[in-house]
Specification:
The structure is a single chain. By secondary structure, this protein is of the alpha+beta class. Among the domains are: 17-107 and 275-383, MFS general substrate transporter like domains (Growth Hormone, Chain: A, Up-down Bundle), CATH 1.20.1250; 401-414 and 434-624 and 637-649, Growth Hormone, Chain: A. Helices cover 59% and strands 8% of the residues. The chain has 23 helices and 14 strands. The strands form 5 sheets. It has a 5-stranded antiparallel β-sheet with strand order 4-3-10-9-5. It has a 3-stranded antiparallel β-sheet with strand order 6-8-7, covered by helices on one side. It has a two-stranded antiparallel sheet with strand order 1-2. Helix 3 packs parallel to helix 9, helix 16 (440-469) packs parallel to helix 18 (504-524) and helix 16 runs antiparallel to helix 19 (532-556). The termini are far apart.
């Protein structure tokens, strides 16, 4: 089917789409569905592998940093060899292979935690060897069946080997609210802190045992001994040599010299050796960095192909890109429901029924399936030799919504740059961009953008981590994702109305204030379902911030340095902001917990908002304001016919006040022509 210009079209429910643009829509739907089915859950997956928040934050935060560090290399590579489609397919294939590799990396599970047989009055738990697991997937299962000579499932074989298997427990299910700090994981089994529980509340009868225990363990005055009641009939002795140590737990047969430091993730029955977790962390870091390096040109190349498909109507690009939010939100919603029922493992070393451990294999599988579908769609893309390089695409994407910017304000911004930041055309464009961003007002705006990016990285990495600790389920995660992306889509259509009314700088103040409120609320909520209204604010806030920042930088950047300024904005928000937000946020959470970290970030937003407002007032600058020709600055409120702001006391203004304006000349000033005067006098004398 073809339209009136000979372009192939697709008819969907009576609506006609250009074929190339429709393929781009399907690509974004599939590509971001691949991301949405796995990447928002990577933090809780790493948590289940026994990693701390600092380790998980470093793994996730390294992705955007590597992406932008590798950007210039791939831009030069694509410009030189002009093999955009081949490079795109290679990038998507690399993402598939490395994602599978990430899913295969797990530390070995040597032990499980089980209940001690009845009759033991001094301890409740002990270590037991983990069951044998079959590696190699379906082929490994087949080999074990044929060679091993057993057709029984692994779980049944382990039940016949040890009577303790039926009493495997999840340590986090025994944590009381007083002992738990949201965000701090995993459970440590060390000698730094020992928990001994008693069944009799008679303190006198156990006083000698307490003192004898302390003496045998060489306790001195630096140790903390705390005796308190746990419930109605239990008494607990807590001895701690390091008050800042994360959650710890004692088992009866544990000996640090023999076992080393052991960790048990919350919501899991597995027990790992800490060195094995650290080895898995290093291997995952290598895989993630390689994955991000080789896959980083995929999205810019897809954006370039989409811009080429809508070259006659660039404003359609944003509407096509909305399919990314649709794919991400729906995939995360489906994965959330699926994960709630994925608590069974065919090949688990510590099977138990009383755990909330989830099988994330489904997430990796769906991620790969969606990405393979995206590869098939990408093979239909059309590339020309004159298409933009990956490094230039970001700026072109920002320019697609430039028509929504008020013409009056755009001219005012360009006039300001011409007067204050202009330079010679031969000057280095990167230097011009640095000069533009070095302006106090633009620098304050850029800092606000980076702070907002840090919050985006913190939420992306640790919102679900925090909610899991306070009782949130994967179904809730899926619903939160849908609410967030629905809010983003709605905001897309109204964001410039807000900016046109209040201006870029004031909208940024508003976003910082909303972030302060949102993170303070997150820090005090105990019911995870109460986060739903906050997700509406998150989606609207992040969509507004990026639209506001991208349009503002495009306006204030010098013409010769616009591309570099736009790239600096992307690095500041997506690279530095999100990357450092994940890394620093994870490091802080691992020490003081997620609630306090959210409070600290909220206060940073408040300080940034107040500081920017105060300094802008000090320098008598409120920023660009859209609207009916009203501007903040008193010395630039008179408008020329083309909307160019004019000074009150300038010579051109005086000329406008003293002369007439010829509308046919678009506001040109009528001036007397000496030749015409001479001709008129000649005609009058000859009559």
């Amino acid at each position: 089917m073809e339209n009136h210009v000979g372009e192939r079209t697709v008819n969907i429910f009576g609506k006609v789409f250009p074929r190339d643009a429709f393929i781009c829509r399907l690509f974004y739907l599939s590509f971001f569905a691949s991301f949405g089915s796995l990447f928002p859950l990577l933090a809780v997956y790493f948590k289940q592998l026994g990693m701390t928040a600092a380790q998980a934050g470093f793994l996730i935060g390294s992705r955007p940093i590597v992406e932008f560090l590798s950007g210039p290399f791939w831009s030069q590579f694509a410009s030189r060899f002009r093999k955009q489609k081949l490079l795109l397919l290679f990038s998507l294939g690399s993402l598939v292979l490395f994602t599978l590799g990430i899913g295969l990396v797990q530390p070995v599970t040597p032990y499980c935690i089980v209940y001690v047989p009845e009759g033991n009055k001094t301890c409740q738990t002990m270590l037991a060897p983990a069951g044998k697991i079959i590696r190699g997937g379906a082929l490994g299962m087949l080999k074990e069946t044929l060679v091993g000579g057993s057709t029984k499932p692994a779980r049944h074989r382990r039940q016949t080997q040890s009577p303790l298997v039926e009493k495997i427990i999840d340590l986090s299910s025994f944590d009381s609210e007083e002992d738990t700090i949201a965000g701090i994981a995993p459970e440590y089994i060390t000698r730094d802190r020992i928990m001994v529980e008693f069944d009799n509340p008679e303190l006198v009868g156990y006083l000698w045992e307490i003192l004898h225990f302390a003496y045998n363990n060489n306790m001195d005055q630096t140790n903390n001994i705390c005796l308190y009641f746990d419930g109605s009939n239990d008494m607990r002795l807590q001895i701690s040599t390091n008050a800042r140590q994360p959650r710890v737990f004692q088992v009866c047969n544990y000996n640090e010299d023999n076992y080393g430091i052991l960790v048990s993730p919350p919501h899991s029955t597995r027990v790992y050796r800490q060195p094995a977790v650290e080895q898995a962390f290093m291997l995952l870091l290598i895989l993630i960095c390689l994955c991000e390096f080789f896959s980083s040109p995929a999205l810019p190349l897809a954006d370039a192909a989409t811009l080429h498909a809508v070259r006659d109507n660039p404003a359609e690009f944003g509407k096509i890109r909305l399919m990314a939010s649709v794919g991400w939100g729906l995939a995360m919603f489906i994965m959330g429901i699926a994960l709630d029922y994925s608590d069974t493992f065919r090949n688990h070393p510590c099977p138990a029924e009383n755990t909330t451990e989830k099988n994330y294999t489904l997430c990796f599988v769906m991620c790969v399936i969606f990405m393979l579908a995206a590869m098939g769609l990408a093979s239909k893309f059309k590339f020309d030799d004159d298409m933009a390089a990956p490094g230039e695409v970001g700026g072109l994407v920002m320019d697609t919504r430039e028509a929504e910017v008020s013409h009056v304000v755009a001219e005012k911004a360009r006039a300001r740059v011409t007067q204050s930041e202009g330079g010679s055309g031969s000057e280095n464009s990167l230097l011009l961009a640095m000069k533009a961003l070095a302006s106090m007002h633009i620098l304050l705006f850029f800092i606000s953008v980076v702070v907002m990016g840090g919050g985006a990285g913190l939420v992306f990495s640790f919102l679900y981590w925090h909610l899991q600790d306070i009782g949130g389920s994967p179904v809730l995660f899926g619903i939160l994702s849908v609410v967030n992306h629905a809010s983003e889509i709605i905001t897309y259509f109204y964001v410039f109305k807000l900016i046109n009314k209040y201006g870029h700088v004031r909208v940024m103040y508003l976003c910082l204030a909303v972030n302060f409120f949102r993170f303070m609320a997150l820090s005090i909520l105990d019911n995870p379902w109460m986060v739903l209204p906050l997700q509406v604010l998150q989606g609207a806030c992040l969509a507004t911030v990026w639209s506001c920042a991208s349009s503002y930088i495009s306006l204030v950047a010098p013409p010769h340095a616009k591309q570099h300024a736009q790239y600096a904005l992307q690095v500041g928000y997506h690279g530095i902001g999100k990357g450092i937000g994940s890394i620093v946020g994870g490091s802080v959470i691992s020490v003081i917990g997620s609630r306090t970290t959210f409070v600290i970030y909220g206060l940073i937003c408040l300080a940034t908002c107040a500081g920017s407002f105060g300094l802008n007032k000090l320098f008598k600058y409120e920023g660009i304001k859209y609207g009916a020709g009203n501007f903040e600055e008193e010395d630039m409120d008179i408008m020329a016919p083309q909307g160019v702001p004019m000074a009150r006391d300038g010579k051109i203004t005086d000329a406008f006040n003293a002369t007439t304006v010829v509308n046919a000349n678009y506001g040109a000033i009528a001036q007397e022509d000496p030749t015409q005067d001479a001709y008129d006098r000649y005609v009058s004398t000859t009559r």
